[in-house]
Amino acid sequence: MAIIISTLNNPWFVFLADNAAAKAKELGYETKIFDSQNNTALESDHFENALVSGYSAVLFNPTDAEGSVVNVRKAKAAGVPVFCMDREINATDAATSQILSDSYSGCVELAKLFVQQTNKKGTYVELLGLVGDNNTWARSQGFHSVVDNYPSLKMVAQQSADFDRNKAMDVMESILQANPNIDAVFCGNDAMAMGAYQALAAAGKASKVKVFGFDGADDVVSAIKDGKIVATGMQFPKVMAQTAAIYADEYLKGKREFAQKLPVAVELVTKKNIENYAAFGKKEQ
Hints:
- The chain has helices spanning 11-26, 40-52, 69-77, 103-117, 134-147, 165-178, 190-202, 218-225, 237-252, and strands at residues 2-5, 32-35, 58-60, 82-85, 97-101, 122-128, 153-160, 184-187, 210-212, 231-234, 261-264, 267-270, 277-278, 281-282.
- It has 285 residues and is of the alpha/beta class.
- Helix 1 (11-26) packs parallel to helix 9 and helix 4 runs parallel beside helix 5 (134-147).
- The protein starts with a strand and ends with a strand.
- Helix 1 (11-26) links the parallel strand 1 and strand 2 (32-35).
- It is built from nine helices and 14 strands.
- The chain has two domains: 2-100 and 236-264, Rossmann fold, CATH 3.40.50.2300; 103-234, Response regulator (Rossmann fold, 3-Layer(aba) Sandwich), CATH 3.40.50.2300.
- The strands form four sheets. Strands 2-1-3-4-5-11 form a six-stranded parallel β-sheet, sandwiched between helices. A four-stranded parallel β-sheet has the order 7-6-8-9, sandwiched between helices.
């Protein structure tokens, strides 16, 4: 099985890839992990390589909801099933199945806490992920479906930082120059939350600004324990990765009926319940 991942420059996606590979190997398949480096052209090359090399299935984390569709269709035309993990594509007749976090609902819960923590007033910043990824907008829309009902909460900046920690730090530094007295930051993933926190700490504002993330990354789990980050939405990449591998195995053994989209619940993690969680999921019992 070919495991094609949007980027391995983020521990979350490394974890997703490694778990997909481990489950596929457990099921008896050879695997290879391909890193698209958030580049649709490189992703296309990986699909070409996978098809030419005779891979039986693709476990796929798309780079771009729209731009990745053509690659999935190419695989389908070649008789190779594709199972999307975590990120979706803008087609319901291309991938065999898409196993996705329920980002919208997860961010509704985060937003409710955001409103409580800010006492329904103040100024805030939103850091968006990759603009071509539907998760970016699902998270933003879930958040705004709650927060926009409170007119005393004012968004003073909304910028993309591409789900990247270093870019988020740079973007946050620039935003702080124009808006030095913000009360909170909502980030579309944990890497950006840590980047935003670094910028706030460097400006001497970390204790005054409430930061919210999304993913359940190791450093944010630690940061919530330490009171540096308020909360995150815990995703379950192991569940998505293993499900994709199991579905691919079932397909190759003859099954053809799969849910086009399988939502995986996201759980709100705060200092109150942090002891129940580890990086990227619940603590092993």
